Amino acid sequence: HSGRARADALWGASESQKVGLMSFTLAIVGRPNVGKSTLFNRLVGKRLALVDDQPGVTRDLREGEARLGDLRFTVVDTAGLEDATDNSLEGRMRRLTERAVDMADICLFMIDARVGVTPIDQMFAEILRKKSAHVILAANKAEGNAADAGVLDAWGLGLGEPIRLSGEHGEGLNDLYSQLMPLADEFEERAKDDSPEIDVALDEDADEEDLSVPMPTRNKPLQVAVVGRPNAGKSTLINKILGEDRLLTGPEAGITRDAISLQIDWQDVPMRIFDTAGMRKKAKVQEKLEKLSVSDGLRAVKFAEVVVVLLDAAIPFEQQDLRIADLAEREGRAVVVAVNKWDIEDEKQEKLRNLKEAFDRLLPQLRGAPLITVSAKTGKGLDRLHAAIMRAYDVWNRRIPTAALNRWLTGMLEQHPPPAPQGKRIKLRYMTQAKTRPPGFVVMCSHPDKMPESYNRYLVNGLRQDFDMPGSPIRLTLRSQS
Ligand code: GDP
Ligand code: GDP
Question: What pLDDT, on a 0 to 100 scale, did the predictor assign at position 189?
Answer without folding.
Answer: 66
